Amino acid sequence: MASELVERYFRKETLPNIWCPGCSNGIVTTAIVRAIDNLGLDQNKVCIVSGIGCSARASGYLDFNTLHTTHGRAIAFATGIKFANPDLTVIVITGDGDNAAIGGNHFIHACRRNIDLTVVMYNNHIYGMTGGQHSPTTPRFDRATTAPYGNIDRYFDICKLAIGAGATYVARGTAYHVQQLTKLIERGISHKGFSFIEALSICPTYYGRKNKKGTPADMLKWLKDHAVDIKQGSKMDPEEFHDKFIIGELLNIDEPEFVEEYQKILNNLKVNYK
Amino acid sequence: MMPTVLMQGNEAVVEGAINAGLKFYAGYPITPSTEIAELCAEKLPFVGGKFIQMEDEIASMAAVIGASLTGLKAMTATSGPGFSLKQENIGFAAMAEIPCVIVDVQRMGPSTGMPTSPAQGDVMQSRWGTHGDHPIIVLSPSSVKEAYYITIQAFNLSEKYRTPVILLMDEVIGHLREAVNLDEYKDVEIFERPMPQDKENYLPYQYIENGVAPLAPFGKGFRFHVTGLAHNEKGLPTNDPKVTEKLIKRLIGKIENNKKDIVMFEEKDTEGGDILLISFGSSARACEAAMQELKKEGIKVGLFKPITIWPFPDKKLREIYPRFKKVFVVEMNTGQLYYEVDRIIKGNTYVGKINKFNGEFFTPFDIVEKIKESF
Amino acid sequence: MVKNKELVIIEEWCKGCSICVEFCPVKVLELKNGKVRLIDADKCTKCGLCELRCPDFAIYLEVKE
Ligand SMILES: Cc1ncc(C[n+]2csc(CCOP(=O)(O)OP(=O)(O)O)c2C)c(N)n1
Ligand code: SF4
Ligand code: SF4
Ligand code: SF4
Ligand SMILES: [Mg+2]
Question: Per the CB < 8 Å rule, is B67 touching A80?
Fold first, then answer.
């Protein structure tokens, strides 16, 4: 036996998962499942689509309609699913490399279309699966196997990108603040339109070890100590804020949604179809 | 009776697809395939279908696979550069066994090449464009009417064998306008995706020798996993060499061992003679005209036209070629199908090449001249 | 309500990452031979934080009838 949640929503035969000890992928994945459970969604109508990476392996563990795609392309597959069958709740699981590097183009265009998908990006600041190369979200001067003398690339703020590209729900949470993360995902799923939730995560094996970040618990504590809730963030002076990041709901607006707009065209053409 | 109408090749593809049950199109514009996207955008709403222009060809291929997983018949169309971009996800569809149709209206390459000029340079890419050993079906029509019929067959084979099917057009056939009467096809059988019954014990990748299990649509209570990783019968990832080998053997076998059902070709004057021409697509049309000329000069020429380029109709060719003194493979490239023909004939008969790769299509004269030179 | 819950550990799934140990508010968990273990069941407040943060679904509160 396992917890009710696991019994109900996980494919038990696939467990234990392949993730390293202390990897936060399991924490974020459980937050997604809890959000689905809290919303009381029909398991048969939920579709989980993932790309390629450690984080993307999550789809295989989950007992929904699950699709593990190609590197960076999950959102494009998900777009096909949602557009073809709007009855499905489509949730995309992706990594910082998967979504912000190779999949960047699909990401911005899905934001722009405002298609009703919920994308959860597990941001561990590294390419975990391929062994610790730097990603678009590796902080400057941090180390990675392909940045042995420090990373000179600038940090890519994917939440800002999402807002700029036209997403209508954007939030950031962390693997430490699990309850809040669950709520943010819940709201993202309920939101009509393109929802993006960045889940700051930890990769103790590569990012942690390369950058001397300590144990998995130390890394989670770091998230705890450097996260500032959006409600407090605006009041903080820049000095105090410089090494911190905002968590919470960054954007929640209503804009025309792609699938509904297409339906309107069909209605205007007076086409009858189910 | 349906009326005779003037139709373009690309239009015939759309008509055929809609007749076959096309309900989802995703694409990215590229000459000389663009009319297919434009017509789908216009027509699909009237048959309860959907059209989306994606941000690139990679995304188009992905969206098509996603839509197919919900149970819709799905298609995309492109040309050389876009065909290259689609390859990774074509491999995904092959591995995950998701039915879909990919139209490649070939233009002159490599690279941007000559965007509005015809070629048949994607013969090998259509077979081996994606990495790894994989099953694929490639069909090539040589007239507008055939484009209509072969498109329907592309959907049928794709659904029946749960495989991506590539409709290998060329610019000439894509843009050619011909008077067609589609009446004879009005009763063509349309293969519908079977629905599995048992939700509890559903195995989306059940081992069926040389066959496939029915594919349940997402959202109907089957809740299975689909991955491009090597997988077991449930679709879950595996590292087991035995399971993997069995999977790959089945994937290859479901096409290779069903050639009898899959393979299509046409033959003309193949009772025997001096020269056997082997050609496909628009080049085969030029061959037909060349045959008339050569006949007048007393040269006995036959034509073998594979419609299924891959798997190649090897059995039929083995039967025909010994009746001729020489074989020529006629294609708008530097010699690609030639390799397959040469492999089959194994030096038993002379196999020559007649090629054109400068952006111009074959005239019958090009072929007549080359044949005469060979005497 | 808290009383009828019981802390369950799935040893085979525990990877000994120590996250639950570090974040248990009353410090009643420890690692022994790379697996988690409950030292003092009476002191456990059944707050559920260990379950919330365990990446391997290896520790959870079960409702007892
Ligand atoms: C087309 C392609 N290029 C490269 C790879 C190799 N690859 C697999 S996962 C990955 C990076 C994953 O990083 P991220 O998305 O951050 O996921 P994580 O493993 O960190 O969760 C790469 C480069 C691939 N599978 N496919
Ligand atoms: S390599 Fe990093 S991201 Fe991948 S499973 Fe291990 S800890 Fe997690
Ligand atoms: S339920 Fe709370 S008190 Fe009990 S072991 Fe878990 S974290 Fe500690
Ligand atoms: S958090 Fe989970 S895996 Fe880690 S030590 Fe605790 S029970 Fe074990
Ligand atoms: Mg990563």
Answer: yes
- The secondary structure element, H or E, covering residue B329 is strand B324-331
With residue B20 as reference, give the H or E element that holds it.
Answer: helix B9-20
ipTM of the complex: 0.98
What token pair was written down for B144? 């507008």
The pLDDT tens digits for B107-140 are: 999 999 999 999 999 999 999 999 999 999 999 9
Closest CA to B272 of B301, B295, B251, B296: B301
Q: In sequence order, which residues have a C-beta less than 8 Å from that of residue B343 and are 6 or more positions away?
A: none
Tell me if the bond preceding B241 is cis, omega within 30° of 0.
no
Q: What distance in angstroms lies between residue B210's CA and the mean position of ligand 2's atoms?
A: 38
Comparing alpha-carbon positions, the chain A residue that sits nearest to C21 is A217
Q: Where are the domains of chain A?
A: 4-268
Spatial neighbors of A141 by CB under 8 A, at least 6 apart, are A150, A151, A152
Q: Considering chain C, what is the average pLDDT of its residues?
A: 94
Rounded to a whole number of angstroms, the CA Rg of chain B reads 21
Write down all domains in chain C, each with its CATH number in brackets.
2-63 (3.30.70.20)
Cα–Cα nearest to B25, from B2, B8, B1, B48: B48
For domain A4-268, give the CATH superfamily.
Answer: Thiamin diphosphate (ThDP)-binding fold, Pyr/PP domains (3.40.50.970)
| Residues in contact with ligand 1 (CB, 6 Å cut-off) | A 52-55, 71, 95-98, 122, 124, 126-130, 135
For residue range A204-260, list pLDDT tens digits in order. Answer: 999 999 999 999 999 999 999 999 999 987 788 888 888 899 999 999 999 999 999
